[in-house]
Amino acid sequence: MSSRMAGAALLRHLGPRLFAAEPAVSGLAARGVVPAATRVLPLRMGSTAAEAAVEDAAAKQQGGTEKPKEAAGGQSNKAIVSYWGIDPPKLVKEDGTEWRWPCFRPWDTYTSDTSIDVKKHHEPRALPDRAAYLLVKSLRVPMDLFFQRRHASHALLLETVAAVPGMVGGMLLHLRSLRRFEHSGGWIRALLEEAENERMHLMTFLEVTRPNWWERALVLAAQGVFFNAYFVGYLLSPKFAHRVVGYLEEEAVHSYTEYLKDLEAGVIENTPAPAIAIDYWRLPADAKLKDVVTVVRADEAHHRDVNHFASDIHYQGLQLKDTPAPLGYH
Q1: Can you tell me whether residue 48 is helix, strand or coil?
Q2: pTM for the whole thing?
Q3: Is 70 exceeded by the pLDDT of residue 112?
Q4: Exposure pattern of 279-291 as b/e (b: 16+ CB <10 Å)?
Q5: How many CB atoms lie within 10 A of CB 81?
């Protein structure tokens, strides 16, 4: 009898809260009312979407009609309502203006060392080196025929492929470090830095030109084939894989040198540098496309040196973890 009475009392207390007939969430949000279950367990059962809707309704009641602005990269500046306590930092540049790029931060920027020797070449001697060199040279021929002097489009495809080796190598070294309970000598971070730097090259040239549908299809095919091939190649022979990348970067340096020649000759218009490039490489405000291509070429030359260096380490019978990685080399 006592249990029945207790149950009846509990039902009378919670019944109006749990089983009250109320409109759908969208209607409640418009009236500024929260669902019944949320009133009982507000922290766990209240979704962030519902909370956002309630706050939007409250803002409208207070006369707030301002449209949310969009940041660079198409991201909205509208605050995200969440009980996880994650609040994106408000960043500013050195001059005090607001930082506009969500894809990288002020501490990721740098001034490129353009004094690096862009004519250096590793002379292939061993059989794996010759194979790597011939492989890269054979890949260059169809690319030159396909793109000819369309350097910006060539750069788009080049960067979608060039950003793969660092990610694959860094991932495999990461797994090796976990599997063998050992440090990596900083090489995981160095290779991932290279991949991110190449990706930023791509984001920059997307401001210069946009790929056609058939160029997107070519990128899809090239990336799918190259990722899997490089993954298997790195598992079988890291020294061969790094040598291939070293020669790929040599060809990238050559491609950007041809790009610069056409810019200097007036064949390609030397337009103002994209804003993302000015902030990423800390270029002057009046920088031109030629300045962007110059710093990108310098980056490729640094990646060339790092990968040839990594291959040399393996050729000397050592592992990458035995030699400190050249972090921040570019």
Answers
A1: helix
A2: 0.74
A3: yes
A4: bbbebeeebbbeb
A5: 15
Residue 47: predicted pLDDT: 43
The pLDDT tens digits for 25-36 are: 444 444 444 444
DSSP 81: P
33, 152, 230 from 64: Cα distances, Å: 18, 44, 54
Average per-residue pLDDT for the chain: 81
What digits encode the pLDDT tens for the residues 119-155? 999 999 899 999 999 999 998 888 777 777 788 888 8
Q: Is 113 helix (H, G, I), strand (E, B) or coil?
A: coil
What is the rounded distance in angstroms from the CA atom of residue 306 to the CA atom of residue 312? 10
Asked if 110 and 282 touch (Cβ cutoff 8 Å), the reply is yes
Residue type, 12: R
> What ranges in the chain are assigned the alpha helix state H?
2-18, 25-31, 36-40, 42-45, 48-61, 127-147, 151-180, 187-205, 213-236, 238-265, 275-280, 289-315
- d(C-alpha 4, C-alpha 214), whole Å: 73
Give the angle 232-233-237 at the CA atoms, nearest 5°. 125
Kindly indicate the confidence band of residue 301, based on its pLDDT and cuts at 50, 70 and 90.
Answer: very high
